[in-house]
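Researcher: Please generate the 3D structure of the following complex. Treat every line as part of one assembly.
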Amino acid sequence: MNLPVQTEGLSKRYGGLTAVRNLDLTVRAGEVYGFLGPNGAGKTTTLRMLLGLVRPSAGSVRLLGRTPGAGRLTGVGALIEGPAFYPYLSGWDNLRVTARYAGVGADRIATVLDLVDLTGRAGDRYAGYSLGMKQRLGVAAALLKDPRLLILDEPTNGLDPAGMADMRTLIRRLGAAGRTVLVSSHLLGEVEQVCDRIGVIAGGRMVAEGSVTELRGSAGLRVLADPLDEATARARELVGVDRVRVVDGGLDLAVEPDRAAWLNAELVGAGVAVRELRPRERDLEQVFFELVERGTADVA
Amino acid sequence: MSRSFSAELVKLVRRPATWLLLGITLALSLIFTYLFPYAGVAGEAAGPNTDRALPAMLPDHLVGNSLGGLPVFLGAILLILGVLTVGGEYAWGTWKTVLTQGPTRLQVYAGKLLVLAVAALAVVLAVFAVGAVAAALIASAEAQPVRWPAATDLVTGVGAGWLIATMWAMLGAVLAVALRAVALPVGLGLVWMLAVQNLLAAIAAPLVDWVATAQEGLPGPNAGALAAALGAPGDTPGVAAVVGGGQAALVVAAYLVVFASAGAALLRRRDID
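Model: Done. Output below.
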């Protein structure tokens, strides 16, 4: 089966600096994949290599099963590092020019303008567009070929909160329509809300990959009880010493949340007053920072 | 490549700077080839162009008069057009927008060069057309006979003009690729065309033999020699018969190919930032 995106050992060096190192990236058909990493992690360089704008120092790239060469971007739409168009042309004329490069008929322009809600301002000069309108025009250009694979690099950069919400809605809509979407971002909340699967890059290396749930790790229980010492001792007897941590005056237990009722009964039976017992999920932000820190430290 | 050509054509035609450059080209051509010389003749004033008598402005001198500006001043404008056409993609960051639509770098670059070649032809034809009107008006005002050059001479003249104009546009294009910008290539290109070339010809060549010899292989002097061979006035800056017309045409054509190929090779090899 041809995967929409597949890289093996992808690396890019600029003199003594390695921007991307030995990156294996796989995006499956129909998923919205979040490529997450802090600024300077190597996201844009990776996407530029996928699209042939930057030549890899090592490794291979396949998009929709095709290797580099003429026609490799058939079925692929992209918005890389912000929109860039000709300021003296209108939005419509910019898309007309772009459509000619793509070999797409002018009838497609109205469709994509409608998709990004820019029809009413299509006749205005690009130079007069707000940042949000420019960003939407960039997405419209990426959609001209009605691509099976859409690559969006930081699509919400510079947008106000309403614009960001609109863009997230648009990405979800595009993903729901059966397209494969690869979206890079340094905003955790953004990928968490939009993406099926996430790859975390730090220091040019992929440090983790999986669904949001997988990245958070196994769920657990949070217990607030009195007296704490007695609760700790009893909990360790019940689930094992290595599964109980005392954190901020309470207990974090690495057990399945469906064991809450049993645990509550056991603790109460042992004379412990349970004030609070609830499922505990690891904060993705915490996971992200841990991963990035680990990845950056490994590179250093 | 036809897709890239049609896209480039839209960009060139819709760009205000294109029409500004064309207007400047025609204005310079008219002013320095016809207006000032005619003012000198009509006013019977002595000046630097008094040797350009009335007959030199009449329609039978159309070919030479139309080519006279191309080795230096009008050529400089074609160089700017070449820089703008290619360098604009760097200045606006639009290479990524274009290339992510699917065409290869060479297809896009070929489209640009083809559009520049067409634009160069349009500029040369416009210079000939405006010159023809001016020469006919002067002939009419001075009750002189209107004799046009032979059709073969006109075709040869337009062809030579196109060759020179396209070579300068290709130089602009390769400078834009090499320097990945607009301002610096324009600046360096103009310094070469307007200053260095003239200093070499006027100061260095008469003093140093090897400079005089080297001039015979440089693009500017060969463009000037080609224009001179087809009747461009010898007192026009940059116009001098340093080599024969046939050799000059070959050298100019060779530079055209070298500039186009070098730009393509650089663009193909480099990363797009």
